[in-house]
Amino acid sequence: MYTATNPYYTARVRSASIQPTGRRHVWAKLPEVPITSSPVPHLTSLYHFNGAGPYGSRKWPGNCGGNLIKDLLLYFQPTGIVCDPFAGSGTCKEVCDELKLPCMSFDIHTGFDACDPEGFSRSPLFDLIWSHPPYWRMKEYSRDRRDLSRCPTLEAFLIRYAQFFRNCFASLNAGGKLCVLMGDYFDRDGGYIPLVYHTKRLAFAAGFKQHCTDIIRFSHGASSGKKTYTSSFIPSLHDVVAVFEKPMKI
Ligand SMILES: C[S@@+](CC[C@H](N)C(=O)[O-])C[C@H]1O[C@@H](n2cnc3c(N)ncnc32)[C@H](O)[C@@H]1O
After folding, report:
1. Atom of ligand 1 at shortest distance to CA of 91?
2. Torsion sign over Cα 29, 221, 99, 120
3. Which atom of ligand 1 is closest in space to residue 135's alpha carbon?
4. Closest atom of ligand 1 relative to the 66 alpha carbon
5. pLDDT tens, position by position, for the chain (250 residues)?
6. Which residue has the least CA distance to atom 7 on ligand 1?
7. What are the residue ranges of CATH 3.40.50.150 in the chain?
8. Ligand 1 atom, smallest distance to 146 CA
9. Which terminus of the chain is less hemmed in, N or C, by CB atoms within 10 Å?
10. CA of 89 to the centre of ligand 1 (A)
């Protein structure tokens, strides 16, 4: 609890500003960033870009800011086609249009199933896949029974999610990158669901290796941050981008 009498929090409270909602806004000091030859020096394992960028629609449930996708594309500089198989409001495609990168983006709302056992049929090979799948049933996206957010059990979700990784592996060029934005959450019946762990497990099982550090995306702007809960729990304020690579030699 933040109280002026609790010495542990005194320094933090002093550096806190008050948001218009009356809640405290704590400024964290981030570690120093080493100098590297990265074309995107501000892209580190802690992603705290405050603005989402003018891409896609913030009204789309689960929409993610385009600035993160843009930074990843500027860093990896794909020379071939980019793919977004969980396109939602088309955020990735709009970033690619701005960067003049060829992009194919699909969604269950346009009749495309990223977990189809037949794979991404008739698709060419991609250089980079950006993907932001449903966090199982945290939010329901459509009435389509193939929608990942409609899987009735965690087991059913993981079977379909595993197929998604196999599809990505088959559709990427050797050395191609797969970036997956995923978060853990507390399910109403299932308890705490470690979806980031399952993401890695299933990606490795499909043949991917991890390419670089995880990127912890701060959940600025999440609606849960504005809620008041009567229960006690440790709030999760982030989700994770895991970056995988299809090995050059299989
Ligand atoms: C987290 S949202 C992605 C939001 C998107 N990144 C944006 O910025 O708007 C997940 C998306 O996955 C789609 N989806 C769910 N199951 C799918 C499936 N099996 N194949 C393709 N898309 C699916 C949903 O319709 C939803 O738009």
Report:
1. 8
2. positive
3. 1
4. 8
5. 333 344 343 334 344 566 656 677 788 899 999 999 999 999 999 998 767 789 999 889 888 899 999 999 999 999 999 999 999 999 999 999 999 999 999 999 999 999 999 998 777 899 999 999 999 999 999 999 999 999 999 999 999 999 999 999 999 999 999 999 999 999 988 899 999 999 999 999 999 999 999 999 998 877 788 889 999 999 999 999 999 999 998 7
6. 63
7. 39-245
8. 19
9. N
10. 9
Amino acid at site 112 = F
Pocket of ligand 1 from Cβ distances under 6 Å: 56, 60, 62-64, 85-86, 88-89, 91, 107-109, 112-115, 132-134, 141-142, 146-149
Instruction: Return the structure tokens found at 212.
Output: 């670089």
Indicate the CATH number for domain 39-245: 3.40.50.150
